[in-house]
Amino acid sequence: MRRDIVTSTIAALVFTVLLGLVYPLVITGVSQVAFPGNANGQQIHVNGKLVGSKIIGQSFADPKVKNGKVLEEKGVVVTEPDERYFQTRPSVTEGGAYNAAASTFSNLGPNSRATEEAIAEHIKGYIELEGPYNPGLDAAHVPVDAANSSGSNLDPEISQANARIQAHRVAAVRHLSLAVVGALVSKYTDARGIGFSGEPGVNVLELNLALDRLTGGAR
Question: Which regions in the chain score pLDDT beneath 50?
Answer without folding.
Answer: none
